[in-house]
Write a structure and sequence with these properties.
mainly alpha; Hydantoin permease; 17 helices
Length: 420
């Protein structure tokens, strides 16, 4: 019997008959992608630098700002039914879009490796070393293979059959249980004052970096939307809801279980092993998104490449990185998030200015294909200017970097388009 693979659209616009996802679908998808063990770990980075109330306030504000910016990035894909890297052809030019494509593939392979490794370590903590020193590698392979099959299945299958019918409800219920347990057993959590080692503006950048890390992927999924408005609302509300919850919960877990890792603190809760196991099952959708979008991004440069073959290749590379990654990888995690913001926040500013203000949300579809310019130098200059702004604010001020870089790159494009 021949196994029939699901259809793939690669760089081509999604047919109107397949653009079926609405507000609820996107709320489920993006709240699901904001739920993850890595997000809990990122929330844990807010402590002890901030007080409890400061950490919660920063988690709320950063989630609102970052999720709004994320939803903005999906407008082009929702309107024209095209993936993110293809949508950047109209902004940066065909060859200009190859620059963020390469950067995006690199970051997605890194994210997939992180996801596979944290899932494997979590499973190891639950099940023990039943294969001795090979147990970790066994779990790395198990989670990688499952994520690979999800990626081959594609977004419509994952959203409609995996998330909405199963995974998201177990994840919500488990997170409610963990949150209730932490709050009910730790009455002194909200009296913690923090040691001031983390400026609130830098903490805000750390929260914004998480939703921004998804915007180079967003149109790979929002291109299946019934309407631009529905995709925007579902994305913004869904990601804000879950990102705030998990950043705040990560901070509370660090306070409630000092000296323990996020994973260990969950396991130490009554029925914590079961709760962690459920979160692990759900975590695979994050890894799916990294692998699937890595394949779609490569197709922007190599449109004739088979998507399923690229999925397998990315999975193999991610497995190797996860297996060989040093134990000190966690020390680089904060920098990893901030560098993502440094590159992609200003690019989002350029895209938003070009699409929403200068072009007034009107491109011709041919601008992404046959009539795409090779390079659009003004947007590229504006993007690199925004990256410089990011690092200047990051290294020489305590004002935060994300918002200045976003606004700076957008204004730079507006000025040189109107003046030059």
């Amino acid at each position: 019997m021949t196994i029939k693979l699901p259809p793939e659209w690669g760089t081509e616009p999604v047919p109107a008959t397949k653009r079926v996802l609405g507000v609820i679908d996107y709320f489920v998808l993006w709240s699901s992608l904001a739920i993850g063990l890595l997000v809990l770990q990122a929330g844990g980075l807010l402590i002890p630098g901030l007080s409890t109330t400061e950490a919660i306030a920063v988690a709320a504000l950063g989630s609102i700002l970052g999720s709004f910016m994320l939803a903005l990035g999906g407008g082009l894909g929702s309107k024209y039914g095209i993936p993110t890297m293809v949508s950047l052809r109209g902004v940066l030019g065909l060859k200009g879009s190859y620059i963020p494509t390469i950067l995006n593939v690199v970051q997605l392979i890194g994210w997939a490796s992180f996801e596979i490794l944290i899932m494997a370590n979590s499973a190891l903590l639950i099940a023990g070393q039943f294969l001795g020193s090979y147990t970790l590698y066994f779990w790395i392979l198990v989670f990688a293979v499952w994520c690979m099959f999800l990626s081959i299945g594609g977004p419509l299958m994952v959203v409609r059959h995996w998330l909405e019918k199963f995974a998201i409800w177990f994840a919500y219920g488990t997170t409610v249980f963990i949150t209730y347990t932490v709050l009910s057993n730790s009455s002194q959590l909200f009296t913690f004052q923090g040691d001031g080692s983390l400026p609130t503006t830098l903490a805000l950048d750390l929260v914004i970096a998480m939703p921004i890390s998804w915007w180079p992927l967003i149109s790979d999924y929002n291109r299946f939307s019934k309407s631009e408005k529905g995709a925007f609302l579902g994305t913004a509300t869904g990601y804000t809801f879950a990102n705030f919850w998990f950043y705040a919960l990560g901070a509370l877990l660090v306070l409630a279980y000092p000296g323990e890792s996020i994973i260990s603190s969950i396991v130490s809760i009554t029925f914590g092993g079961l709760a962690l196991a459920i979160l692990l099952v759900h975590e695979t959708d994050n890894c799916f998104a990294d692998i699937y979008s890595g394949a779609v991004s490569i197709q922007n440069v190599s449109p004739k490449s088979k998507q399923w073959k690229l999925v397998i290749a990315i999975t193999v590379i991610s497995v190797l990185l996860a297996a060989l990654m040093p134990e000190q990888w966690q020390l680089a995690y904060e920098s990893f998030l901030l560098y993502i913001g440094a590159v992609f926040v200003p690019l989002l500013g350029v895209l938003s200015m070009d699409f929403y203000i200068l072009k007034k949300r009107q491109y011709s579809l041919e601008e992404f294909y046959s009539s795409a310019k090779s390079l659009r130098f003004k947007p590229i200059i504006s993007w690199f200017t925004g990256v410089i702004v990011y690092f200047l604010f990051y290294n020489y001020t305590t004002l935060g970097s994300s918002i200045p870089a976003f606004v700076g790159s957008a204004l730079m494009l507006y000025v040189i388009e109107k003046v030059a």
